[in-house]
Design a protein that fits this description.
- The structure is a homodimer of 174-residue chains.
- The first copy, chain A, is mostly helical.
- The first copy, chain A, is built from eight helices and two strands.
- A two-stranded antiparallel sheet of chain A has the order 1-2.
- In chain A, α2 packs across α3 (49-61) and α4 (77-100) packs across α6 (121-134).
- Chain A is elongated.
- The structure holds a DNA duplex (30 and 30 nucleotides).
Chain lengths: 174, 174
DNA sequence: AACCGATGTTTTGCTAATAAAACAACTGAT
DNA sequence: ATCAGTTGTTTTATTAGCAAAACATCGGTT
């Protein structure tokens, strides 16, 4: 069926990668510095002030960012809701990739960052349930993880579903 | 630390969402029709021929797509490697979301589609290992999944890590 | 031969997200 | 008071990805 009805939903995402990071930058700056101005956001994201100014102007127009009488920025209630959901998804994905799949922290951070704003709320919620149970002290979960990790370590004794996983995922490609 | 060194790696992705789907469209058309022309790709992706023509011209220049003497398209070896890795990641993610997290098929398809080309090869490989073991007939895996699903069903008896998962992930927000 | 439909390309225009540069306004030090 | 540095904005330009429209080509009908 070519799944042609699905792939365009990508762009229909109301929160772009860029917007997600402008918003979370404001959130983190408020925590780190206690305030957030256009220049602070630009510095945090390593873009020019001009670019940040334009994007933030649009976010103010969308009601996600509020401006002080002195140009100090703040998240609106809507903006904070969005940031909370993004950070929750990012944290869950990072935890799963790092603590379950045992990917190194940088890789987990990068992939979580790429994916965070794209996951549906349903997926985020279910993944949270799953990771929480998986990393709980439930003996079944403990045993399952121990077995999985041990298979990961000595994977020569394990019959993988495909002959060459590395090639399948282009691990060698350049 | 603001993680400002990470978030820009998003765009550094050599395979964009659009490119991923142009390539996989050619692959699927070759399977379905036995051939793939610019118009066929455009129809499959529901974009104009003009847009497809431009994108495919760039892909020919990058050596990922080859052109027949009669304007018939074909994936190069490099192009096929990329498509294989994308389809593998999409399949694994879809399987995980649908068969493990029990998300409905449409949601699983959409999220897998959004994410497929963004996952690193390492993440794809580890996830494949994980899902394969999780859905195997290993008794520990069986028991773990059974317990997880039963907790999913009667989640009022389970103490979730956060008070209100639905609100955290904006399940109510329009 | 004339026409019609499908195909491929090019040109123009649009939006999002960026950089770069020019500009204005404020701040602080001397 | 001036000068330097910081800040915010605007303008111009670029790139990716699309649409729309014009154009050319080819193939088959009549």
């Amino acid at each position: 069926m070519m799944a042609s009805d699905v792939w365009k939903e990508y762009e229909s995402n109301e929160i772009s990668h860029s917007v997600a990071h402008h918003l979370t930058a404001i959130h983190e700056l408020m925590g780190d510095l206690g305030y957030a101005r256009v220049s602070d956001v630009a510095r945090a994201l390593e873009i020019t002030r001009g670019s940040a100014s334009l994007t933030l102007k649009a976010l103010k127009a969308r009601g996600l960012v509020l401006e002080d009488h002195n140009k100090f920025l703040k998240l609106s209630d809507d903006g904070r809701l969005i940031v909370d959901s993004i950070l929750a998804k990012r944290a869950v994905v990072r935890k799963f990739l790092n603590e379950v799949l045992k990917l190194d922290e940088h890789q987990a951070e990068v992939d979580a960052c790429k994916v965070e704003h794209l996951l549906s709320a349903q997926t985020g919620g279910q993944l949270l349930h799953f990771v929480y149970f998986l990393l709980s002290d439930d003996p079944t979960a403990r045993q399952f993880l121990a077995e999985f990790w041990s298979k990961l370590d000595q994977n020569e004794e394990w019959q993988w579903p495909v002959q060459d996983v590395d090639q399948l995922f282009n691990l060698e490609s350049r």
